[in-house]
Structure formats: C-alpha cells, structure tokens
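Students often ask why we bother encoding 3D structure as a string. The short answer is that it lets us treat folding as translation between two languages. Here is a chain of 238 residues written in the first language.
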Amino acid sequence: MRFAFTLVVVIAAFTLIACGSDKRASAPPETTTAAVVAPTKTVEPAPVAKDKPDTSAAVDAVRDGLPDIPLYEGARFKGTVISDTQVCVDTTLTKESGAAVGGNRTSHVVVSFPALSKGEPQDGLCAKREENSDKAIEAGRFFLRMDDYALGLKDAVMAAQDGEPNAVERIAKLRSRILKTVNAYLLGGGDTSIGGNLLLSAATTAREAAQAGNVARLADQRREITDARKKLADEAIN
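And here it is in the second language, the structure alphabet:
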C-alpha cells in the first residue's frame, strides 16, 4: 500500500515536471531588440564659383576660344592678374607662325571674372598694355584733329576759289597747324600717317594756288583733301 502511494507521488511529480517542460518549450523565445543606427550622410561641399581672378581659368578661356588652325600650334600663354576682377593673358606665337602674319608674334586679351568674358585681342604683351592704350588714345585724338583740319582746309580752298581776301591767310594757318600736328604725333611715337602727309601736301599746294589765284589748281586740291580724309579714316579704323 505504501509502495502504491509512493508510486503515485513519483508519477505525479514526473507529470508536473513534464508539464512545466512543455510550457517552457511552447513559450515564444525571448527576442533582443538591437538599436538600429542610421548611416551618417556625407554632405559634399557646394562648388565655389570662381569670382576672383584665376590665371589658369583665364588662360584656358583664351586658348579654348582660338580657332583650331596651324597658326596657333605651339603657341605659349601666360596669365597675369591686373585687378580684382581681371586677368591679362599673353599669347606668343612660334617664330614660324609669327613670320606668317608679318612678324608680329605677341598679343594679349583681358579676361573678366566671374563671367570669363574676353575683350578684343590687342597687339603686344600685357606688360605694354597701358603704353599701347595711351598710344591708341593719342592716335584717336590725332585722327579727329586732322579730320577737323581737312574740313577747315576744304572751306578755305572754296573761299579762295570765290576770291575772298582772307582765304590765303586761312589756308596758310591751317597748313601750319597740320604740319605741327603731324610732327608732334611722330615725335610722340605715332606711326607715319599717309593720310596726314596727303593732307599736308594738299595744304601746301592749295596755299601756292591761292597766292597765284589758280582756280583750277584749287579745285584739284579739294579732291586731294577728300582723298586724304578717306585715307585718314581708313588708318583710324585699322
């Protein structure tokens, strides 16, 4: 009887153990939640606009703007900052290319920032830019003055044709002014002006014709004055 009771107790104990095992087996496994860290996004720096003069960018702009012809093969380029917004770029051709264009091997272009806009090509290197600019200003003044003299001379010649008493004096004064202007321009480094020489020659001949009262010769000088003005205009443009 005691054996039976003991057996029942043992069976009950095993039953409880088995039930507990089944509960543990059927319970869902515990899960561990790991923190998910979002990847850090790398922010690329915004491109900086070249709002300040950059010699390399200026040289590239000038080189890329040249036509793809043999004349510019082997050409050398050099950029120089000349202001807060400008770079002057020298272009030097090879000796062979320079000979093909009359011996002038050097020129320069001013590039403005940030637009990289290019000015008109000018003769000579950047180092002589101011000197060339001054010469261009003086040349402009010379041609304007000579054109004024030509118009005045033509009026004076017409007055001489009409027999006005002061016409000879007017022509003589204009001739003197033309001569002084031509000489001053040459002494200042200006190029010889064919149009200026033609006008001076017409003034000299007109003075002599007016003194002699030679109306036909005066008429010829009016045509010479017109030709001189045309030549002066061509020189001023070119």
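Translate back mentally: The first strand starts at residue 76 and ends at 81. Keep this in mind for the problem set.
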